[in-house]
Amino acid sequence: MPLAANDLVCNPVFFAAMQTYARQMTALFAENPRLNSIFASQQRWLMAQLGLSLHYRRDPNDPSKGLYVGRFVATAVDYGIASRNTASAFVQEMLAYRFARPADNPPDRRRRPLEPTDVAVQSVVKWLYAHLTILDMLDGGNRAVTLAENPALFARLQPAIAQGILENHAVRNPGETFNLFTWANSGGLVMDCFIGLIDTFDPGAPKAIVGAVSSADICQRYLISKTHLKRLMAKAAEMGSLGHETIAGANMLWLSQQFVREYWAYQAEKFAIIDAAFHAVAAPVAGVSQLSAVP
Q1: pLDDT, tens digit, 9 for 90 and up, residues 220-275
Q2: For 112, which DSSP code?
Q3: pLDDT digits over 105-132, tens only?
Q4: What is the DSSP string of 29-87?
Q5: Helix 257-286 crosses helix 187-197 at what angle (to 10 degrees)?
Q6: In the 3-class helix/strand/coil scheme, how is 69-80 assigned residue by residue?
Q7: Mapped to the 3 state alphabet, what secondary structure does 133-197 carry?
Q8: What angle do the packed helices 257-286 and 118-139 form, to 10 degrees?
């Protein structure tokens, strides 16, 4: 049975799992900052997921199905992800950076679809593998091994996951502070960094101490300008979502419980979507019906 978002939100073990995931995401960004900047904002991440899903849902018998610029732009607008100009600019950027390319041997010579390059696909595979590893930590499952042994599953999993994410309001709008960070370039990475640095989290406490954080280091590591980071932090502080206090002579960053809960709820919804897709697509391969829910 797939893990439910409500169970994950109520399970204290999931917080440690979230921190592991957050550290993995910041490490993944460091491997290839230019490529992984695609996922550095919620808007770009959603557009990337949409583009991949259109590609993997192509139908050789129906030339209109596939990743075409016009179809991508129209679908992005329909989902409310981006304007036509923003979606078009995203496609051109993917082509310029060679994360996408015109497909060889198109089914219809009058229309040439796009396809992701191997480096772009492998980045998303690593993203998915990280999620499956966390899910396996929670219930002793074999999802990550199943994907590693059956890489062709990715082409079936990704569209199901993308659809679940694009149509889930809790994932698209998890909370005011979360949205502030994730809709800003590199803001999601900054948030992942903060969550990963929390030493202990008391669900009953109003604050979670992150520790001493260097703004210069954050800017350099996640390719965010000092001005941009300062604006994010100032706005979040106005909202009461974070702040600083002196502890043992050091200036320590803290996050409000509400901010942490927004992150927690978002991750729970996203992981539940991924797990549901895995069970639906990979169950015959993995025998996932034997997986148990989080205790």
Answers
A1: 999 899 999 999 999 999 999 999 999 988 999 999 999 999 999 999 999 999 99
A2: -
A3: 766 666 789 999 999 999 999 999 999 9
A4: HHH-HHHHGGGSSHHHHHHHHHHHHHHHT-BTTBTTSSB-HHHHHHHHHHTTS--HHHH
A5: 100
A6: HHHHHHHHHHCC
A7: HHHHHHHCCCHHHHHHHCHHHHHHHHHHHHHHHHCCHHHHCCCHHHHHHHCCCCHHHHHHHHHHH
A8: 100
